[in-house]
Amino acid sequence: MQSVMIWILLLAAIVCCGIIRYDTHHFHIVRYQLVNPKLKKALRVVVLADLHDTVYGTDNAQLYAAVKEQKPDLILIAGDMVTASRRADFGASAALLEALAAEFPVYYGMGNHESRIAERSAEYGFRYEEYRRRLLSAGVVFLEDDSVILPQFHIVLHGLELEECYYHQTGKKGLPPDCLLNKLGTAEGGYFHLLIAHNPDYFSQYAGWGADLTVSGHVHGGIVRLPVLGGVISTSFRLFPKYDGGLFTFQGTAMVISRGLGSHTIPLRMFNPGECVVIDMEPGEIQNVHTCKAGEV
User: Fold this and answer.
1) Can you give the pTM of this predicted structure?
2) Residue 192 pairs with which residues in a beta bridge?
């Protein structure tokens, strides 16, 4: 009986290792649909988040091809395409975004890793400045507590950059009530307000400020996902985080959280492959957001 149990445990360990290896090196196309009367015309948005210098195929050719196949009107970067590490190589991420920016509008919202690298040049050097200059030259628009109007869609696109204290692993820090107002100004009525905010923990504040749709990342889907329970642990080391990935709604607004495309520190994903998020948006009288079937890539 003991030998049987040993063989069962060994088999389970092998299966788990296989799942981890697969999920760490593959991603899904995950689709959402949104209808809102504030929109002027239909559009398709691709959201990329938490790549963390991961490479899918030579020079990220696999990820590039998957995004290009979607024929997006906009590509939104929800932060952490690079990793705050002295050994990290930003080249693959930069090359991917350069290639995409040559064909599609790309808007870059800051994650905690970009902010950390930018703020700590004494620790990380000036590689982030070079990375940013390279992407600006390619036409990528950085939204660092900034906004841009997309009149053809009747959208105001915002990028929120939160300070490092809002990502601490020792507990959630409250966001001041006037934080978004001070950083981004007033969410004017009439427009559809689309907010790139890397940290999903403050969804209620985003909604209260006036965001009709928030796109986020950061949590990596909970790293390991379990049936019913969802993501096991957040990147801030909180067990079973409320906002782990997928679609959430609050007071008539929506938040779509990418489960990310990569990992850092511990390169592990289980029952949780990466995600390339596609959101199809169109004008209509009734607001509605729902998930479509995901496809393996």
Assistant:
1) 0.92
2) 155
Burial 107-134 (b: 16+ CB within 10 A, else e): bbbbbbbbbbbbeeeeebeebbeebbeb
Q: CB–CB of 192/38 below 8 Å?
A: yes
DSSP-derived 3-state class of residue 107 = strand
Q: What is the CA radius of gyration of the chain?
A: 19
d(CA 285, CA 16): 46
For residue range 199-250, list pLDDT tens digits in order.
Answer: 999 999 999 999 999 999 999 988 888 877 888 888 877 888 899 999 999 9
Q: pLDDT (tens digit, 9 = 90+) per residue, 151-178?
A: 999 999 999 999 988 887 666 788 998 9
How do strand 155-160 and strand 246-250 relate by DSSP bridges? unpaired
Task: At 40, list the tokens.
Answer: 């002027």
Chain length of the chain: 297
